[in-house]
From TrEMBL:
Annotated ranges, domain Nucleotidyl transferase: 12-237
Pfam families recorded: NTP_transferase
Gene Ontology MF terms in the entry: transferase activity
Keywords: Transferase
Record protein name field: Guanyltransferase
Signal peptide: none
Organism of provenance: Streptomyces natalensis ATCC 27448
Superkingdom per UniProt: Bacteria
InterPro entries: Mannose-1P_guanyltransferase, NTP_transferase_dom, Nucleotide-diphossugar_trans
């Protein structure tokens, strides 16, 4: 089970190897996490590293792939708030295999760890998520977000009368937010190749060893998948000052 000697991880893996085809032309010459949110002066990965450092993380392993050298060059010249190691897959391992490969370079294999997708823009208290994970004695905990539906919706009554029009309401469903807390032992449960969300996670769910942590009310979260996401994130940053 959760064999952590301390409930708050100080190490993390960032998965930053995606091609970001839906973000072209921004990703024509760089990996997705190296795309800059307009007006911030820093790529997505830079903001992630700052957030992780603010939450007590001292060591990060970044899994690189597409345009790995661009990310590595930026890391070499940037003033970083924590220690960073990069690993590059020599052949595609799948999401689970890539996570396992990167986790092998964590400096403290006997301790718990976080992981995050490299295209996530978020701010919430990771220590609270780690405590939630520890209290439930889980092997893995997923952060859960409730994104806004990108369309306006129509509210009706039981007789079909239109009652209201609601612009971009929150989804009634929770989704995987792409941020995780893992026990030290979780790495051994990952496949060497393949997708852990189709193998490891379902098995842990059946065994009640997988937990879901809903993001706190008001926490900022956005996946940067398209050019529209970049524009919306820039607007939200101006509004919220993040």
């Amino acid at each position: 089970m959760a064999d952590a000697p301390h409930p708050y991880p100080t190490q993390a893996v960032v998965l930053a190897g995606g091609q970001g085809s839906r973000l072209r032309p921004y990703t024509d010459d760089r990996p997705k996490p190296m795309v800059e949110i307009p007006g911030t002066g820093s790529p997505i990965i830079g903001h992630q590293l700052n957030w992780l450092a603010e939450e007590g993380v001292t060591d990060v392993v970044i899994s690189c792939g597409h345009f790995a050298e661009v990310l590595q060059d930026w890391l070499a010249s940037a003033r970083l708030p924590l220690r960073v190691t990069t690993v590059v897959e020599t052949e595609p391992l799948g999401r689970g295999g890539g996570l396992k490969y990167a986790a092998a370079s964590l400096p403290r294999p006997e301790e718990p760890w976080y992981a995050t997708n490299g295209d996530i823009w978020t701010r919430f208290p990771l220590r609270e998520m780690a405590a939630f994970h520890h209290e439930r004695d889980a092997e893995a905990t997923l952060a859960l977000a409730r994104p806004r539906i990108p369309w306006g919706v129509v509210e009706t009554d039981a007789f079909g009368h239109v009652l209201d029009f609601i612009e971009a309401p929150p989804s009634p469903y929770l989704i995987n937010a792409g941020v995780y807390a893992f026990s030290a032992a979780f790495r051994d449960l990952l496949p060497a190749r393949g997708d852990h969300e189709r193998t490891t996670f379902p098995r842990l769910a059946r065994e009640r060893r997988l937990a879901g942590y809903p993001l706190p009310h008001g926490a900022y979260w956005r996946a940067i998948d398209t050019a529209k996401d970049l524009i919306e994130a820039a607007k939200e940053l101006g509004t919220h000052g993040r």
